[in-house]
UniProtKB/TrEMBL annotation:
Organism: Hapsidospora chrysogenum (strain ATCC 11550 / CBS 779.69 / DSM 880 / IAM 14645 / JCM 23072 / IMI 49137)
UniProt feature, compositional bias: Basic residues: 398-410, 437-449
Pfam name, any one: adh_short
Name of the protein this chain belongs to: Putative oxidoreductase-like protein
Signal peptide: none
Length: 449
């Protein structure tokens, strides 16, 4: 069928219609070829690495949407035990359905969620201390930091309840705090385990203002805040590797926990959509009308997950030094020397440490004051309830007594009445006796006469 068709065209040339429309057909073919090439290029490389993950324990942030959800899906498919750190409680109906779907899809029951609001230092501490307090130390093979936030362009500077700018808190401070507390758990893993901490970075860190520069509220803008948080995260990740390496294991063997940075590239996720649409309905309408362009130029979340999966599974990344950066499933170097600047890292680490200490102390005080207030209010409520109860009891007793009194008064009255009735009767009987007596007297007199 195909060969005669080719033979026909080879001997007779293309049909008349094609000959007449040759130019438009060539242009259209070229345009389609360019589009396909652009799409393939923009979609990036696919992960070529594989690694059995059965029984491996993975803590994953941001695993419910966007790139993180695709990472969770792939890891669950390979049998990993997933601990999803989610903003909402596991009892949330959408979350429990999501987890059940993952379990059913991959026949993997080892997936569960822990509520950790990354905008709260207290929430992170509660989870992480519970994790490290476990005796014997819990198995931990991977921590994947995929959660992130951004303020859309033109948006207002948002603060967390603890008074930290939201982007800085979720993208940087939360990861610093979580890894800081989990550090003993990572260092305690047996040496035969290939332990990885995967930090999701973004190429926006390249254009961030230097961390050496003073950054105040006046220089804040959504783009700068996001880029700066990612630069700080990258600098911290690098320093964290040094912190892990400096640990002297009791067995004298080298550190087996490695930090790996993964840049997913620009993807069509909820976060990116919020950025492109400026978080407005009009923006969303324009985005949907011109959806062709994001579809063409941005990766799908699946494609965005590839570099993270590569970082999780590529065997060469589990050997040698940590602190490598993966982009398009390839090892690349950092585009900024500041990432490896020890002075910057030291200053950032110390400042962050003291900021967290200050915030945690302030929050602890607030919580204690709130607790004391709550206890006081509860005691006052209890006292009020008790006095109300006593009052009602007293009034009930009073009412009861009053009732009894009125009853006894009524009884007395009835008795008096009965008495008076009784005396009337006796009077009447006396009177009748007397009349009987006079009558009999009269009769006897009559008889005598
Ligand atoms: N998309 C891109 O083009 C792109 C490019 C480069 C780098 N990245 C990085 O890749 C990572 C994933 O990006 P994405 O676009 O997939 O993000 P996304 O769609 O915006 O999802 C962000 C995730 O972070 C979670 N999260 C946000 N705030 C949280 C909080 N306070 N507590 C707990 N969880 C919180 C979200 O949970 P909820 O579901 O509860 O909101 C969500 O699961 C981010 O670190 C991002 O910076 C993305």
């Amino acid at each position: 069928m195909v060969l005669p068709f080719i033979y026909h065209y080879a001997t007779n040339g293309p049909p008349e219609f094609v000959r007449q429309q040759a130019r438009p057909i060539i242009y259209a073919t070229l345009a389609i070829a360019v589009l396909v090439l652009v799409k393939l290029f923009a979609s990036g490389r696919s992960n070529p690495a594989e690694r059995p993950l059965h029984g491996k324990v993975v803590i994953l942030t941001g695993g419910t949407t966007g790139i993180g959800a695709k990472v969770a899906d792939e890891l669950a498919a390979r049998g990993a035990q997933l601990v999803l750190l989610t903003r909402v409680a596991p009892s949330d109906p959408f979350l429990s359905e999501y987890i059940q779907d993952l379990r059913d899809k991959h026949d993997n029951q080892l997936i569960y969620a822990e509520q950790v609001d990354l905008s709260s230092l207290h929430s992170i501490r509660k989870f992480a201390t519970r994790w490290i307090d476990n005796a014997p130390p819990r198995r931990l093979d991977m921590v994947i930091l995929c959660a992130g936030t951004l303020t859309p362009p033109g948006g207002r500077r948002m603060q967390t309840e603890e008074g930290v700018e939201e982007t800085w808190m979720v993208n940087y401070l939360a990861n610093f705090h979580l890894l800081g507390i989990l550090s003993p758990a990572l260092r305690a893993q047996p040496v035969d385990r290939d332990v990885r901490v995967i930090v999701t970075t973004c190429s926006s860190y390249i254009r961030s203002p230097s961390l050496k520069e003073q950054f105040d509220d006046g220089s804040w803008s959504p783009g700068v805040a996001y880029a700066r948080s990612k630069l700080a995260l990258t600098v911290f990740g690098w320093a964290y590797q040094k912190h892990l390496d400096s640990y002297k294991r009791p067995d004298g063997l080298p550190m087996n926990s490695r930090v790996i940075f993964a840049d997913p590239g620009y993807c069509r996720t909820a976060g990116m959509r919020r950025w492109l649409t400026r978080g407005s309905l009009v923006g969303l309408a324009i985005y949907l009308c011109g959806y062709f362009w994001p579809w063409l130029l941005l990766k799908s979340p699946e494609k965005g997950a590839q570099s993270i999966l590569y970082a999780a599974m590529e065997s060469s990344l589990g050997r040698g030094e940590g602190g490598k950066l993966v982009k398009e499933c390839l090892q690349v170097d950092f585009a900024r020397s500041e990432v490896k600047d020890e002075e910057v890292a030291k200053k950032l680490w110390e400042e962050t440490d003291s900021l967290i200490e200050k915030l945690e102390k302030a929050q602890a005080k607030k919580r204690a004051a709130r607790k004391a207030e709550g206890e006081k209010a509860a005691k006052e409520r209890e006292d009020k309830e008790r006095s109300e109860e006593i009052d009602s009891l007293v009034s009930a007793i009073k009412k009861g007594k009053a009732k009894e009194k009125s009853k006894s008064r009524k009884k007395d009255k009835d008795r008096d009445k009965e008495k008076s009735k009784g005396s009337d009767k006796s009077d009447r009987s006396d009177r009748s006796d007397k009349s009987v007596k006079t009558k009999s007297k009269k009769k006897s007199k009559k008889l005598d006469s």
